[in-house]
Amino acid sequence: MYTFEIEKEGYVLKPMNCPGHSLIYKSRLHSYRDLPIRLAELGTVYRYERSGVLHGMMRVRGFTQDDAHIFCTAEQAPAEVLAAVDLCLFMLRTFGYSEFQVELSTWNPAQQEKYAGDAPGWEMAEKALRWALEQRGLGFRKMTGEAAFYGPKIDIKMMDALGRPWQGPTVQFDFNLPSRLDIHYLNSESKEVPVVMIHRAVLGSLERFFGSLVEHYAGAFPFWLAPVQATVLPITDRVGTYAASLRDRLGQAGIRVELDERNEKIGAKIRQAEIQKIPFMLIVGDKEAESGRVSVRRHGEGDRGAQAIEALLEEMKVLNETRAMAS
Fold it and tell me: Residue 322 carries which DSSP code?
């Protein structure tokens, strides 16, 4: 962790979001009728990783997690885990991941003294995690003894274009914080019962997710994800006004578009757009300006010929709305 001192007081840059959510939960008394309570945030945290293990965006010292913590009863835990797994799968499939590795990390019953919680709690948690995976037909590898000391977990690792796995979504129980911070609820008999706490991160570290996404698509993002979705390429200065109006029209329709006004030959402009893997290259010359149309070139496909602007906008709208995976 990053620790430092100011005016003889010790400070630490926030390494995790869990204690903050726990204190929010503890800000008032809760009964079983209030549960489940789900708290989520995009929380930036800092870890003092050694310089030798830093790796581009994949392993950094300051990162943002789409963190959530679910406070529930033991009876509610299976449904909460299943809902978290469903959300993870929805997000992964939305971003085009169809292949991933799933691991279920459990404790080593022969070394119970190394873990927080008790045997019945671990049995309940591992059963809930396994049940959720089986409900969705997900094959998984059981990692006995690989659980953190505070609870078992599901890890989903995303496979990139080269078949390399990258850590992504996590669903994990925590027996440590409820005990150490006295996080409880009142049951139907008004007795204090330790709450069941579930961590979940859908994309995990956003920096690592973006890095793995670049690797997954090898930089050729599908249209709806591309930072620049289209570039307008005028052949001559004579069509500059028409090219600018085309850019403005696409921009008003919500398309992320740029206009290449450089004094370069059209071949050089096309080559640069192809290198940048921009999905649509819209080439305009005298003929297109006179007809009010545009010559379309698609990354990875080549020249598609002249097209009416209205038809092009409709195609782009469908690609955006359906989150089509073709680049």
Answer: H
Cβ contact 84:67 at 8 Å: no
Is 67 among the residues known to form the active site?
Answer: yes
What would the two tokens of residue 240 be?
A: 């500059």
Backbone angles phi, psi at 235, to 5 degrees: -80, -40
Choosing from 38, 47, 249, 323, the catalytic residue is 47
Q: What is the pTM of this model?
A: 0.86
Residue 299 annotated in active site = no
* Residue spans in the chain of domains classed CATH 3.30.930.10: 3-217
Catalytic option among 21, 69, 184, 208: 69
Looking at the domain that runs over 3-217, which CATH code has it been given?
A: 3.30.930.10
Domain 230-322 grouped into CATH 3.55.30.10: no
Residue 6 vs residues 10, 44, 61, 291, 294: alpha-carbon distances, Å: 7, 22, 22, 69, 62
Q: What average pLDDT values come out for the chain (327 residues) when binned by 10 residues?
A: 93 92 96 96 93 87 94 97 96 89 94 92 96 95 94 90 84 95 95 96 91 89 96 94 96 96 94 96 95 94 93 95 75
| Given 153, 208, 216, 247, the catalytic residue | 153
Q: Per the residue annotation, which of 199, 200, 208, 293 is the catalytic one? A: 199
Does 88 qualify as catalytic in the annotation?
A: no
* Residue of 18, 88, 172, 216 with catalytic role: 18
In the chain, CATH 3.40.50.800 covers 230-322
Known catalytic residue: 111? no
User: In sequence order, which residues have a C-beta less than 8 Å from that of residue 177 and are 6 or more positions away?
Assistant: 18, 19, 22, 150, 183, 197
Q: Which of 66, 67, 160, 260 is catalytic?
A: 67
Give CA angle at 237 (236, 242), nearest 5°.
Answer: 95
Asked about 153 being catalytic, the answer comes back as yes
Is 65 assigned a catalytic role?
A: yes
